[in-house]
Amino acid sequence: MDSPILRVNYKPQLPSKIDYGIGIIGCGGIVNYGHLPAYRKHGLNVVGCFDINRESAEKTARQHDIPKVYESLDDLLSDHEIEIVDIAVQPWHQRRIAEQALAAGKHLLCQKPLADGIVDAIAILRAAQQSGLKVAVNQQMRWSAGIAAAKDLIDRGFIGQPTDAQIQVSASTPWHMWPWLAESPRLEVQYHSIHYLDAMRYLFGDPEWITSRFAKYPLQKARAETKTITVLDYAWGMQALVAVNHYDESGDNYATFRFLGTEGLIKGTIGLMYNYPTGRPDTLEAHSNNFAPDVWFDVRLEGLWIPDAFIGPMTSLMAAIQSGGKAVTDITDNINTMRLVDACYISATKHRTVHFGEFEEIDTLLAGGTDDASRAPA
Ligand SMILES: NC(=O)c1ccc[n+]([C@@H]2O[C@H](COP(=O)([O-])OP(=O)(O)OC[C@H]3O[C@@H](n4cnc5c(N)ncnc54)[C@H](O)[C@@H]3O)[C@@H](O)[C@H]2O)c1
Fold first, then answer.
1. Strand ranges (DSSP E) for 94-226?
2. Looking at the domain assignment, is residue 202 inside a domain?
3. Which of 281, 309, 337 is the last residue of a domain?
4. In the predicted model, is pLDDT for residue 372 greater than 50?
5. Which DSSP string do the residues of 310-331 spell out, in sequence order?
6. Which of 86, 204, 275, 371 has its CA 20 to 30 A from that of 34?
């Protein structure tokens, strides 16, 4: 007997209007191999680009047929054709650019991490709230095929009540692609596991308790952590594990997710991490007592976390502009991903478990209060 077909809704739904004028700030690696290939595939309207390195901007414009290269940030921001500013610079530059772009009346798509610490992230949130403009963050893993498909199934009750979630990656990461990370005091969680933590929040909401342990590889050149294990405890008893090692030189690399519930299981692989950034499609297998107790479904997925998923954050932002609602990765949501990232660093450095509610200043700000939210917990 043929297996029944499992219909999974994982491809992004584009809004009716997708021709907003986009201005790119920062023309480095991820813009060239992530943002622009995805935008081109869907016919988005990239008006122009700017980089402090003029040569990078010109090269990017040539390679992706972008009509304008700007002399300065001010030139880009004063162009009325540009409605959305798409920032892809190192996070410590992002706050100043975001504040200027909002002051110029532009909607924003920021790169992850929103900032290199919670204080600057909160400052961007404040500027966004005061402007009334839309600000989203490029946590595009939510639109990667495996995570988007899991979200659809979990929301439809496929696994019943979630009880255990795991994302485990053991990879040989090409660190030379980001030379600027070598000196960073924060590394693995802030720049990589942030995607997995954001995916866990997307699928299961915010945890109650956060415990992280960090380590380094004996031969690594980078200053900060490259091997991390984080446990998230949820109020209803679910436990989640994010365990990532970027120095597995054995050749036996893996990148897996496994979401278990009272009624079923979803498990699969994160294709991009098998040969970053070339990658391979995600895989997904699923079983549900609720849907077909005798069947294991093998779902064929298309598209890669990079570049294909990059269409998600940008078009979700466009949908929010049209509807007046919130983008899926709106800054008010992303501030809680930043809170989770900070909690991991506090946990690992202070050797203690952190309560998600310790950051009550953020809650006050999100509720529209005026307390000084720039103080991070010790
Ligand atoms: N979402 C993802 O999956 C993903 C993947 C890779 C990188 N990133 C993020 O994207 C950002 C950029 O990473 P990258 O790998 O492309 O780095 P990169 O060094 O390759 O590119 C950054 C570019 O920004 C330019 N730049 C720096 N400061 C600037 C400024 N003030 N104004 C204009 N241009 C400026 C640089 O000249 C450079 O061309 C980082 O924050 C990184 O964390 C996200």
1. 107-110, 135-137, 162-170, 209-215
2. yes
3. 309
4. no
5. GHHHHHHHHHHHHHSS--TTBH
6. 204
pLDDT of 222 over the 60 cut: yes
Whether 363 is covered by a domain: the verdict is no
Kind of pairing between the strands at 107-110 and 162-170: unpaired
Give the bridge partners for 296, in sequence order: 287
Write down the pLDDT at residue 124. Answer: 96
Asked whether residue 102 falls in the same domain as residue 61, the answer is: yes
Q: Residue 310 C-alpha to ligand 1 middle, in angstroms?
A: 15
138 lines ligand 1 (CB under 6 A): yes
254 shares a domain with 268: yes
- Is ligand 1 within 6 A of the CB of residue 30? yes
pLDDT of residue 362: 79
Amino acid symbol at 66:
I
Structural domain total, the chain = 2
Write out pLDDT tens, residues 191-220: 999 999 999 999 999 999 999 999 999 999
- Both tokens of 293, joined, read 């107790």
Say how many residues make up the chain: 378
Q: Tell me whether residue 333 is in a domain.
A: no
- The predicted-structure confidence for 67-86, as pLDDT tens digits, reads as follows 999 999 999 999 999 999 99
Q: 34 lies in a domain? A: yes
Range of 108's domain?
Answer: 21-139+310-328
Burial of 176 (0-12, 13-18, 19+ CB in 10 A): exposed
> What CATH number is attached to the domain comprising 235?
3.30.360.10
Q: Is the CB of 28 under 6 A from ligand 1?
A: yes
With 50 as the cut, is the pLDDT of residue 168 above it?
yes
Q: How far is the CA of 259 from the centre of ligand 1 (A)?
A: 32
Pocket test for ligand 1, best of 111, 189, 276 (most atoms within 8 A of CB): 111
Is residue 160 located within the same domain as residue 90? Answer: no
Please give the pLDDT value at position 211.
Answer: 98
- Judgement on whether residues 132 and 157 belong to the same structural domain of the protein: no
Residues 133 and 151 in one domain: no
| CB contact set of 321 (below 8 Å; sequence gap of 6+) | 20, 83, 84, 107, 134
Interval 119-128: pLDDT, tens: 899 999 999 9
Residues 205 and 257 in one domain: yes
